[in-house]
Amino acid sequence: MPAYRCEKCGLTSRAFLTAAGAREHGAEHRARAHGGDFPDGECLVANEPFLPQTSQEWKAVLAVVALLAASWVWHHVFG
Asked: N or C: which end of the chain has fewer CB within 10 A?
């Protein structure tokens, strides 16, 4: 999963599902931190597979899994 890397700032973003998401994050960082200029060493890097990193992300994943499980049970019991 791609992430944005700014060597000048020592910043590596969280992993994004798409390269376009990482590029957009990079554009926002450039505008905010570098006045729109491209810092030396800026790149997209391959990152570890996406895993939820905050408790809110984990809660969202668990909510989706619970809804899918409830749907499966409903379909097989009342189908």
From this structure: C
